[in-house]
């Protein structure tokens, strides 16, 4: 079971609480978590990743075990603490400007 924490605007869109739990098949990677999340909550498709390229949208960041994993390969395994549900996978809306 993977725990995912969504930012407020995506929680509202998906009509969920702060944290959702997912059963991810196979290796636990950014791609597998996001694929499972979008399959379960289709209204989130295109909000976190581009529809066609599946690249992370600008101003969206991913964190695992307090580390920014946004620029790592989407197929790199996430830490064991995330894979076991001990720690959540965070999707964070970043801000720009001063």
Radius of gyration: 12 Å
Strand and helix order: EHEHEEHE
What is the number of independent domains?
Answer: 1
Gross geometry: globular
Oligomer: single chain
The share of residues in helices is: 10-25%
Give the helix/strand class.
Answer: alpha+beta
| CATH class group | Alpha Beta
Q: Roughly how many Å apart are the termini?
A: 38 Å
Strand content: 15-25%
By DSSP, the count of extended strands is: 5
Major beta-sheet overview? 5 strands, mixed
Task: Indicate the low-confidence ranges by residue numbers.
Answer: none
- CATH homologous superfamily designation: Beta-grasp domain
- Known CATH architecture: Roll
CATH topology: Ubiquitin-like (UB roll)
The chain-level mean pLDDT equals 94
Strand order of the largest sheet: 2-1-5-3-4
Question: How would you explain this protein's 3D organization?
Answer:
The chain has 3 helices and 5 strands, in the order βαβαββαβ. The N and C termini lie far apart (38 Å). It has a 5-stranded mixed beta sheet with strand order 2-1-5-3-4, covered by helices on one side. It is 22% helix and 20% strand. The model has no long low-confidence stretch (mean pLDDT 94). The longest helix has 11 residues, at 30-40. The protein has helices at residues 8-14, 30-40, 80-83; strands spanning 2-5, 19-22, 60-64, 67-68, 89-93. It has 98 residues and is an alpha+beta fold. The protein has a single domain (2-93), classed as Roll (Ubiquitin-like (UB roll)), CATH 3.10.20.
């Amino acid at each position: 079971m993977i725990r995912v924490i969504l930012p407020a605007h995506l929680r509202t869109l998906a009509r969920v609480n702060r944290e959702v739990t997912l059963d991810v098949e196979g290796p636990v990677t950014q791609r597998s978590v996001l694929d499972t999340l979008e399959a379960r909550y289709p209204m989130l498709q295109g909000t976190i990743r581009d529809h066609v390229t599946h690249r992370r949208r600008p101003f969206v960041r991913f964190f695992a075990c307090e580390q920014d994993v946004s620029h790592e390969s989407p197929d790199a395994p996430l830490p064991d603490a995330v894979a076991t549900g001990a720690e959540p996978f965070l999707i964070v809306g970043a801000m720009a400007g001063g």
